[in-house]
Amino acid sequence: MTSTLKKKAFKIAFIIASLASLAFVPWILVKAWILPLPNSIEEQLEETIDHGFDGMIVYIDQAGKAPEFYTAGWHNRKNKIPAKPDALFKIASISKLYNAVAITKLVVDKRLDLDKTLAEYFPELKTRIENSNKITLRTMVQHRSGIPNYTSFGNFWENPPETRKEILELILDLPANFEPGKDYEYSNTNYLLISMLIEKVVGYSHHQYIKEEILKPLKLKHTFSSIKEIDTNELMSAYYVGYEQDIKGNDYGSMVATAQDVGLFLRALNEGSLFDKKGQEIYSSIYVFDHGGLMPGYQSLAEYHKDINTVIVQFMNTTNFEGYEWNLSEISINRIAKILRKRKNDKAL
Description:
The structure is a single chain. The chain is an alpha+beta fold. The protein has one domain: Beta-lactamase. The chain has 12 helices and 11 strands. The strands form 3 sheets. The chain has a 6-stranded antiparallel β-sheet with strand order 3-2-1-10-9-8, with helices on both faces. A 3-stranded antiparallel β-sheet has the order 4-7-5. The protein is globular. The termini are far apart.
């Protein structure tokens, strides 16, 4: 084959490969990202719903202003009940913020030590969790322990264990994912152990401790430890792509709250009113100040935007672990923040 023919063949192969690669581009994300920014939050919610979500709730707290509530889509799809701004919602891993605050308070009170090891706190697990004599409370809070994530084993979401002991059994005797403190990997097992540790120290439910030390002082009356404590009619329905049924009754142990309660908590956390100066320094050294939550049927984001002194809480009741729903939720909340910044800048002119 001549040099010219080789070049032509290469160009043709390149074009074919390029066209083929377009089939793998997540066009729904590209579209969500490049669409012109709407003028209002309401328009943004409707745009997001059009990407395939059943329902949304958004709570916005801008410092010095009355809170704003927005909804779109369905609270209950089958019964055609519109989304409600005060609906209860499973907040999933947002609850880790509450647990991290609880740990901080116990450290301030000298009832816990961040540098004490897992083996010291739970001698019975010394031979069951690798590196237990090196894993500190600090590395567990920060997801730097190397302990495997229990939701990755045993078809957890399809067949969740009924007790914490059964959940813990999923990862006992497994090799560590890495040496403690040498890497980062998000692991729900860290916070399962943290909740057990809180209970071991205080002598009662960690949920009760959170209620007494966080919820009551902040007057958060619409935050609960699980769906067992609520009227489930007030709980937003939950949908997983490809399944028709409402799966809100599936109990994975999540805390439940309204968007406003989460927003009030996040405001207090970021303003520093949950701790004294020492407590704020400790918390700042071990964990984050906003969070997301994801479980079948529920995905949530709770963010504080310092530049505009604004808390945004976004709830969506449609999930798909194999799709782009999580990415779409992140794009949505980012666009909401952009709208708020634009609104603020326009008023400053």
